[in-house]
């Protein structure tokens, strides 16, 4: 088989690898973006719970203050009981005291409910806090991973690009132009032919043409998809070490 056809097959394997590597490189910042978003969301949840807790605490304090004030009023009214000048005044005071006590008791119930609710929110807050820490660690790990992977990939990419230059230098300029043109139009340019069929477009190729491909002496293009055909059974698909 003509050496050039083998070179084309290797060039294609290299190009497939390079495309894939470039795609992977682009995906790296995306992973960091995803982790960052997850962290921001966790922080948002924590913030909202903290605000919620603050509101509940304020509500509790307001109610407790009111209880104290109402208690003082009860004391004051109790003091006035002894100075009541008539039965009417006395019963009016008693009524007022009872109403105040009732209000105090209601407020105390409300405070208890608030304390329960605060306990619950505190539990949620602790969980959210842990989640934030986990997401921070995950983001840091993703950053380290991406940095390492990128360095490693850059190095290999450089090597492979040099390798590509060497290969291209050994391929006839005209053939390389065909390769590039077909690759641009079809995604990939070199394909195996088997049993009179182009494995790129699965069309049956004329027997005479297939014989030419088998011989491997000329650059033969598929009459249907224009891909360069070969019959190299052990052709590499992609170069190793992805
Ligand atoms: Zn074809």
The largest β sheet comes out as:
4 strands, mixed
Strand content: under 5%
Q: How would you describe the oligomerization state of the chains in this entry?
A: single chain
Q: DSSP helix count?
A: 4
Order of helices and strands: HHHEEHEE
Summarize the structure.
By secondary structure, the protein is mainly alpha-helical.
Explained architecture:
With 242 residues, the chain is mainly alpha-helical. It folds into two domains: 14-170, Helix Hairpins (Orthogonal Bundle); 173-230, no CATH class. The chain is 77% helix and 5% strand. It contains four helices and four strands, in the order αααββαββ. The chain has helices at residues 3-81, 87-170, 173-186, 207-215; strands at 190-194, 197-198, 220-221, 228-230. A four-stranded mixed β-sheet has the order 2-1-4-3. A hairpin with a 6-residue loop joins strand 3 and strand 4 (228-230). Helix 1 packs antiparallel against helix 2 (87-170). The longest helix is centred in the middle third of the chain and has 84 residues, at 87-170. It is rod-shaped and about 130 Å long. Bound molecules: zinc ion. Zinc ion (ZN) binds next to loops.
């Amino acid at each position: 088989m003509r050496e050039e056809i083998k070179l084309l097959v290797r060039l294609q394997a290299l190009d497939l690898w390079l495309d894939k590597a470039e795609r992977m490189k682009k995906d790296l910042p995306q992973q960091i973006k995803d982790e960052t978003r997850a962290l921001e969301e966790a922080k948002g949840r924590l913030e909202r719970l903290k605000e919620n807790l603050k509101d509940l605490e304020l509500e509790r304090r307001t109610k407790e203050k009111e209880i104290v004030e109402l208690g003082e009023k009860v004391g004051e009214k109790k003091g006035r009981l002894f100075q009541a000048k008539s039965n009417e005044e006395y019963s009016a005071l008693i009524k007022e005291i009872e109403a105040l006590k009732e209000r105090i008791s209601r407020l105390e119930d409300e405070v208890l409910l608030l304390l329960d609710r605060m306990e619950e929110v505190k539990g949620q807050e602790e969980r959210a806090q842990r989640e934030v820490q986990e997401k921070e660690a995950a983001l840091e790990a993703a950053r380290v991973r991406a940095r390492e992977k990128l360095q490693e990939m850059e190095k290999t990419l450089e090597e492979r690009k040099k390798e590509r230059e060497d290969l291209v230098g050994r391929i006839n300029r005209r053939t390389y132009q065909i390769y590039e043109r077909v690759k641009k139009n079809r995604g990939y340019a070199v394909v195996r032919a088997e049993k009179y069929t182009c494995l790129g477009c699965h069309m049956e190729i004329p027997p005479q043409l297939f014989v030419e491909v088998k011989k491997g002496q000329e650059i033969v293009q598929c009459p249907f998809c224009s891909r360069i055909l070969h019959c190299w059974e052990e052709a590499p698909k992609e170069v190793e070490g992805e």
